[in-house]
């Protein structure tokens, strides 16, 4: 059983994916971390972010078992990741690794931008989790403030919109819902309600497969 979850930055798909994986005892991969780990390795080695052959080489070395969310969540790593995520050969390398992960038993949850459209187009459950840019910026702002940090809402809002443009505007694997994806707009929905909706979709798919 493969559960594909896509959507823009800060829509709540990571939280939802982790909760689903825990509930069903499935393996979870946040595929954004694979792009982030590649970008971080380039930054750490002092290598350029605009050389596709070098970036592909790094992408092929990424260890999916060693992805550290805390380190990789840094803002500048996200920015660098979205630059190398436009490179077709980097995407090919990471998609190969993601597909191998997706086959793990008893099931997997992958979240990202192109899981339902490119990585696992045959996944029996596809969710497209979204929310308005204003709501996503507000949630990200609250998260930072609650963690004791300081942040400027307007800057975050601009950042969310810029990231959307880059993710939706690229030629290779742009962010968009798969035709057979279930759309979950969380703008006015709690994470709990989103989870309950997802759960009923997954339970229906599991009983079809049984
Ligand atoms: O979800 P995130 O912020 O960790 O993603 C980091 C970058 O990687 C983001 O700009 C989009 C890109 N990405 C992608 O192109 N395809 C994926 N499946 C996951 C992330």
Automatic annotation (TrEMBL):
GO biological process entries:
pyrimidine nucleotide metabolic process
Main location per the UniProt record:
cytoplasm
EC number(s) per entry: 2.7.4.25
Q: Name one GO cellular component term.
A: cytoplasm
Q: What are the alphabetically sorted keywords of the record?
A: ATP-binding, Cytoplasm, Kinase, Nucleotide-binding, Transferase
What are the residue boundaries of the Cytidylate kinase domain, all occurrences included? 3-196
Kindly list the places in or outside the cell where this protein is found, as annotated in its UniProt entry. Answer: Cytoplasm
Please give the Gene Ontology molecular function terms for this protein.
ATP binding; dCMP kinase activity
Give me the reactions it catalyses: dCMP + ATP = dCDP + ADP; CMP + ATP = CDP + ADP
Q: Which residues bind ATP?
A: 7-15
- Kindly give the NCBIfam families that the UniProt entry links to this protein: cmk
HAMAP family attached here?
Cytidyl_kinase_type1
Say which family it is in.
Belongs to the cytidylate kinase family. Type 1 subfamily.
Name of the protein in question: Cytidylate kinase
From which source organism is this entry?
Rhizobium lusitanum
* Gene that specifies this protein: cmk
């Amino acid at each position: 059983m493969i559960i594909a979850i896509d959507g823009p930055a800060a829509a709540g798909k990571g939280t939802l994916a982790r909760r689903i994986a825990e509930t069903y005892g499935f393996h979870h991969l946040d595929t954004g971390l694979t792009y982030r780990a590649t970008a971080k390795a380039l930054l750490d080695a002092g290598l350029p972010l605009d050389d596709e052959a070098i970036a592909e080489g790094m992408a092929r070395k990424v260890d999916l078992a060693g992805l550290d969310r805390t380190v990789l969540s840094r803002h500048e790593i996200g920015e660098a990741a979205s630059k190398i995520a436009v490179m077709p050969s980097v995407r090919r390398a990471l998609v190969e690794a993601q597909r191998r992960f997706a086959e793990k038993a008893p099931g997997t949850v992958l979240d990202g931008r192109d899981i339902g459209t490119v990585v696992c187009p045959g996944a029996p459950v596809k969710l497209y989790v979204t929310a308005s840019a204003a709501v996503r910026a507000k949630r990200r702002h609250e998260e930072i403030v609650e963690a004791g940090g300081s942040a400027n809402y307007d800057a975050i809002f601009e950042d969310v919109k810029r990231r959307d443009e880059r993710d939706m505007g690229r030629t290779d694997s742009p962010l968009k819902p798969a035709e057979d994806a279930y759309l979950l707009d969380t703008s006015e929905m709690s994470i709990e309600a989103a989870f309950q909706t997802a759960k009923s979709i997954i339970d229906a798919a599991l009983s079809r497969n049984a």
